[in-house]
């Protein structure tokens, strides 16, 4: 459901905590551009070798980059802060985490990043294992009573269906998020011609106005337990 709001209204949940969410803006030039080489007449990627690599052939370096990006996925929230946010519904007895002994929430940007990482691993599931992208598969495998009455093929089919649901959910969530806060940075589109007459239509936005990511990570880190306590299932 879509509800129209005044364009001047604040759209970010600034009262989500007693430490205000960062709203510092920065002008950013995106990394990883598709460009055309006029000598070889080929399309190539221009990337900054000093920045972390998040996509490509699976490697420990790529996995470490994603682990770093998601290490503060679930900031803690106090009962007093929960009371300030009617939109956040908690069962105060059930929802306190058994290890941290705290209540937690997630900024939706981390949900999107989790989902993008799940889709990335699905593309290389032979490397990562077919059902290890959001712990959906592992959660299903823990139900031994159900599995005792299932054949191996039925069990495998259930895991594959659960994983497909997870990936479809993730891609749809990312789609909705992109439409919710669309990046309206303009990109001039250029036509390039290959030696065989094939034409390429390429363009890259020069600058983007973004929330300062470092400020967001520092804010989340200050409210987060030691990484690794919470198993994500989105």
UniProtKB/TrEMBL annotation:
Region (Disordered): 134-162
Pathway it works in: Mycotoxin biosynthesis
InterPro entries associated with the record: UstYa-like (IPR021765)
Coiled coil: none
Alphabetized Pfam families for the sequence: UstYa
Gene Ontology BP, a term: mycotoxin biosynthetic process
Biased composition (Basic and acidic residues): 134-147
Record-stated family: Belongs to the ustYa family.
Name the UniProt record assigns to this protein: Tat pathway signal sequence
